[in-house]
Protein: Antibiotic biosynthesis monooxygenase
Amino acid sequence: MTVTSLLDMRFAAEHLEDGPPALVAILEDTRAFDGCLGVQIVTDVTDPTHVVAVEHWESLEHDEAYRAWRAGPGASGLGDYLAGPPTLTRFTDGASL
Structure:
């Protein structure tokens, strides 16, 4: 079953100029990671520091492998641009309600 992961983050005010381009560059590796079906960035219309990465993964296992890679050898340095730690929420797609 596919998974949609929402990574909710806020850029530090002093990184509003350089943070978004850094995120775009970081996401090149995310999109190339095994099991990634795509990533979209959405920005809060009233607060440009608030962005959410909407990631689609083939499976929870692919997403978990990606998170482990980012926590280790694939560390991106994204946290240097953020006002605080991002929040990750994951959803299964296609669940019957």
Q: What stands out?
A: The longest strand covers residues 3-10. Residues 3-92 form a domain with the Alpha-Beta Plaits fold (CATH 3.30.70.100). The two ends are 15 Å apart (CA to CA).
